[in-house]
Design brief:
Elements lengths: L3 H6 L3 E4 L2 E4 L3 E2 L15 H13 L4 E3 L8 H10 L7 E6 L1 E3 L5 E3 L3 H15 L4 E7 L13 H12 L3 E7 L3 H8 L6 E5 L8 H9 L3 E5 L7 H14 L3 H12 L12 H9 L7 H8 L4
Parallel strand pairs: 3-4, 4-5, 5-8, 8-9, 9-10, 10-11
Antiparallel strand pairs: 1-2, 6-7
Helix pairs in contact: 2-3, 4-5, 8-9
Amino acid sequence: MTANTTVIDQAGTFILGEKTVQRMGYGAMQLAGPGVFGPPKDPERAIQVLRDVIDSGINHIDTSDFYGPHVTNQLIKKALHPYTNDLTIVTKVSARRDEKGNWLPAMSPAELRQAVHDNLKNLGLEQLEVVNLRSMLDVHGPAEGSLEEPFSVLAELQQQGLIRHLGLSNVTAKQVADCQKLAPVVCVQNQYNLANRQDDALVDTLAAQGIAYVPFFPLGGFSPLQSEVLSAVADEMGHTTMQIALAWLLQRADNILLIPGTSSPDHLQQNIQAAAISIPPAQLARLNAMAS
């Protein structure tokens, strides 16, 4: 283990399913080629990043078999299999890629079952720790509509022992509540950051239930003015804008688990440093006001 293990520890831990995970995790999406399509230019560098992830004390990796497709899971298997007992790999299903790399819905029962088996094969597992159903009712963001059928398919696969825990992604609060009537939900993965706070109430609801909230796109959707505020605070504190955006998420709620992604060993270490950053009250107030 490196010195960064103690840095990781400063962010604390949270229960994800049955395992205690570091709140600073890692997202594997960027390990695939451009546009999350095809193989990376430098596969050995990708494998090194994954090994650095583990050496840094991270024990929560987010992936999907539709990254590549198949590429990131195969890289994870090559780099890390056999996996340590404390590692939690979370995957997601319900999308596929066409030959041009477009993202298409794949939410039929047959497609979901195939996706679970593909994840098992490419990760080299007999059981997936956590599978998120990503709603594809709207590719670009949460949209109301029933997820009962696809979530029920995953619940059946859970009962068969292929999946240990279930989660949801790109969903509304109503969809979370509806799915909870069918099977327990251990995490929700949505877009959420300093500038996009639509899930504020959902974060708090899940926290009260002991359920993890996993935000993606920590710097996505900022206006120029919001970016200026973030940059100013980052400059004052001597950190990067990404580090401050991640640190803010860690301070926002104890049930928030981070999965920043990178294909760069240096950027990985920069992201990890965010676990040790405490944003003072004055700067925190300025950042909180960005969404208003």
